[in-house]
Each structure stands twice: as C-alpha cells, then as structure tokens.
Design goal:
The chain has 261 residues and is an alpha+beta fold. It has nine helices and five strands. The protein is globular and about 55 Å long.
Length: 261
C-alpha cells in the first residue's frame, strides 16, 4: 500500500483537483496577503486535503478489503448497536462521527475518508461562517470540527494567532522549522458552535450537504449533562446556553414544533 501512495505522490498533478469555480474566482480576485486571500487559501487547502484523501481511498488499496472487518456487525440481539445503527455498519472505518452521511456525498464513502483525513491532518474538518444575511457574519472566521481524545467535540473558531500561524505555514517560501498542524482547540478557543444544531441554523459549514440535521429524538447527552465539563464548555454561561438549546430541541420532539402535545 505504501508503494501505491508513493507512486500517487510522484504522479500527482494539482490540475486533477476539482475546485468549485466560485472558490477559485474568489481566491483569484483577492489581493495576495489580504484577509480575503488568506481565508480562501485556507479553504483551498482544506478542499485539496479532502480531495487527495478521496483519491487515495478510491485507489482501493485497503489491507482489509477482503477480510470482512469493515462489514462486521454484532448479532441482531445487540439492541444497543442496532438502535444506533439501524442500517448496519458504515462503508468505511475511516470516519469522523459527525460526517457520515455518505448517501448524499458527491463521492460517497470516499468523502467520509476525506473528512477523516481533514480531522487527522489539520485538527478538524475545516468549516466557515456562511451567515451572509446575519449581523454576526464574519467572512474571515475559520472553524474546526475536531474528533480527538482530550479535545472538545464542539466546533471551535480559530484564534487570530492560530490562523496566522497556519497562513505563514502555507505561504512560506522554504520549509518552516515547525508545523502548526494539527491545530488543537483549548480553553482559549471560546467561540464554539453546537454540532447538534442544524447547519442551516448555525450557518457554520463548508458545504450544505456535509451533515444532515439530527433527528429530534437523537441523543443529546453532552449538552443535557448536569456536570460542567470545561473541556467542551469553557464557561458556565456557555454551558447554560448550550443546555438551553438542548432543552428546546427536546421540547420540539416531545411537544411538536407548535408546542402542542
């Protein structure tokens, strides 16, 4: 498999990447070094990482392709598993748990591997502020949605210094002495977004098709928990606001959108 990857690297040509024309035009129209240029450069980098992972996945070099590991599932008597996975196992083990809606992805299961690669290499799936009609819209904000031990499960905005370190790394003429990747969120990354909320409402995403809205009856344990976990909720006010959103979501499930039983 390593030989296949090396061959891919040697033969790789950036021209084979399929970049959305709107993103390319926005990048080309921005003055080099401007905030608009930097934000589009980060988005191009994220898309490139994702697409390269898709291509590698589609090479079909898995060491477990024929041993049944990917397709394994517990017996039907395991109610807990089948309640949470009614359609059975996912088509790949390379997954970010919040990005598994492969049935609506342009590249199917390969896009699951793409989001997984973003998370492992960059520190999280890279998403942006798309709230163009909102007074809170920040066109230069960059967010990560991580999936790591000892890092919050919530989407967090990069601090200015984290974003600057990434830009300097991407634009360096020579190899930088130290890579800022992966970028790991910590207690100073206080601007956070609940992934349980629909992306159409939060406005924080890269592509609208990347995550389906959670069913109203889906578990919401992290937000409903009474214990204050500072890893996920840096302040008590943040915890209280997040729990309030969870309660509103639960009430919509129990009472319906109009509040009637």
């Amino acid at each position: 498999m390593l030989d296949k990857v090396r061959q891919f690297r040697e033969e790789f040509a950036p021209e084979i990447l399929s970049i959305d024309s709107r993103l390319l035009f926005a990048y080309q129209a921005a003055a080099p070094g401007s905030r608009a240029f930097n934000i589009r450069l980060i988005e191009l980098m994220a898309v490139a990482v994702h697409q390269i992972a898709v291509m590698l996945f589609n090479l079909g070099t898995s060491l477990h392709k024929d041993d049944g590991i990917t397709e394994w599932a517990p017996p039907k008597s395991n109610r807990l598993y089948w309640d949470h996975n009614p359609d059975g196992p996912l088509p790949t083990l390379f997954k970010h748990p919040w990005y598994v809606d492969y049935d609506q992805y342009p590249n199917g299961a390969a896009d699951m591997a793409g989001y997984w690669a973003e998370s492992r290499i960059l520190g999280g799936v890279v998403v942006f502020d798309r709230r163009r009609q909102s007074p809170d819209f920040d066109p230069y904000a960059v967010y990560l949605h991580p999936n790591r031990t000892n890092v919050t499960y919530r989407i967090f905005e990069l601090l200015p210094e984290q974003k600057q370190a990434l830009i300097e790394f991407l634009t360096a003429d020579a190899a930088p002495p130290e890579s800022p990747l992966p970028i790991l969120g910590h207690d100073m990354n206080r601007n956070r977004v609940d992934p349980e909320e629909p992306i159409e409402e939060t406005g924080i995403y890269r592509d609208l098709w990347e995550r389906k809205e959670l069913p109203l009856d889906a578990p919401d344990a992290a937000r409903m928990r009474d214990v204050w976990d500072v890893l996920d909720f840096p302040t008590q006010a943040d915890k209280a606001a997040s729990k309030r959103r969870a309660i509103e979501r639960r009430d919509r499930y129990l009472l319906g959108d109009d509040g009637d039983v």
